[in-house]
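Need residues for this backbone.
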């Protein structure tokens, strides 16, 4: 299967640059994965499509304010560091700019010296290991000095950092938001639970690899990035109970989907798990757990649109995307949503 098989034409003005005022007022395209039929609704209509005994699985990862803007020492030239993976001992794997000036031994300063750093190693893929020096607690320093690592297609400045967090985020560690969850309000979650729908949480720390384009012609030649995820015992129990009682397991976001499918048993049961996953889901994949998916609209030729196509069929998905373009839906991280059942 070719990467170009997942291309669609997207006008640039449909890429949402800012979140809408009310989270659950976003539009919702409901897609029947069997027939390909769709309906146009709003996210606050979600309860109309859920049944008592179903369960929603959400990713509770919280985004680090991982983008640091500072100066190179000595001299004061500007630099940018994006935290990716905590390696321990105050050292992080990072993306840096400008790369040609940030070789091993380069020293950096952020926040008038409140936070300093040294590049200790250049990795084979071009990322850097950076060791930081600071007083106090690193996450508190980062909260003061860091900015949200918005995706490269968002050019507008984010006014409220919490709008790039889900209302249920709690485990800090992502370099990008699990954006399907941005549409939920606490009130909507409570309404869903009050109607007898179970709500469970997994954690997958989203890496910037989620934005990495597929450059190979054959999708099977693409090397998938790895991300750390966990399924706690209470979530495994909820999923297994839901399945045993004939309910549907509906994942909120591709990250929740990838977490469950990474650790599911062949019979569809789930056990408490933790570890790294690089699962790549594309058409032909047989889902073990997932019955439905809430997701945003994804980039053309991305691994995410391939995952969605595995669930609902490539032709159905691309037709629905063409309809979304015609109807001027908002795309990507701050955009509108799809419900696939």
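Answer:
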């Amino acid at each position: 299967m070719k990467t170009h098989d997942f291309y669609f034409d997207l006008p640039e003005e449909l890429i949402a640059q800012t979140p809408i005022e009310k989270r659950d007022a976003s539009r919702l395209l409901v897609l029947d994965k069997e027939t390909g039929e769709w309906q146009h609704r709003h996210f606050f209509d979600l309860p109309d499509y859920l049944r008592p005994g179903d369960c929603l699985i959400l990713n509770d990862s919280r985004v680090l304010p991982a983008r640091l803007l500072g100066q190179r020492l000595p001299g004061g030239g500007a630099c940018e560091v994006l935290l990716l993976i905590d390696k321990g001992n105050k050292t992080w794997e990072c993306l840096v700019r400008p790369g040609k000036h940030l070789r091993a031994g380069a020293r950096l300063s952020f926040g008038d010296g409140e936070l300093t750093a040294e590049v200790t190693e250049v990795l084979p893929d071009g990322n850097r290991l950076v060791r930081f020096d600071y007083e106090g607690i690193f996450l508190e320093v980062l909260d003061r000095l860091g900015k949200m690592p918005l995706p490269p297609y968002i050019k507008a400045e984010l006014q409220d950092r919490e709008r790039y967090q889900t209302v249920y985020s709690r485990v800090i560690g992502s370099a990008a938001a699990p954006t399907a969850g941005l549409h939920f309000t606490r009130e909507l979650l409570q309404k869903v639970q009050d109607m007898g729908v179970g709500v469970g949480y997994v954690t997958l720390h989203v890496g910037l690899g989620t934005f990495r384009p597929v450059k190979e012609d054959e999708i099977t030649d693409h090397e998938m990035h790895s991300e750390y995820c966990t399924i706690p015992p209470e979530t495994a129990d909820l999923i297994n109970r839901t399945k045993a009682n004939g309910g549907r397991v509906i994942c909120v976001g591709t990250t929740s989907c990838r977490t469950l499918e990474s650790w599911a048993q062949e019979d569809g049961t789930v056990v408490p798990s933790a570890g790294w996953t690089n699962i790549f889901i594309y058409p032909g994949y047989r889902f073990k757990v997932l019955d439905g998916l809430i997701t945003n609209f994804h980039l053309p030729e991305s691994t995410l649109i391939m995952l969605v196509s595995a669930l609902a069929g490539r032709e159905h998905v691309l037709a629905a995307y063409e309809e979304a373009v015609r109807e001027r839906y908002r795309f990507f991280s701050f955009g509108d949503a799809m419900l696939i059942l």
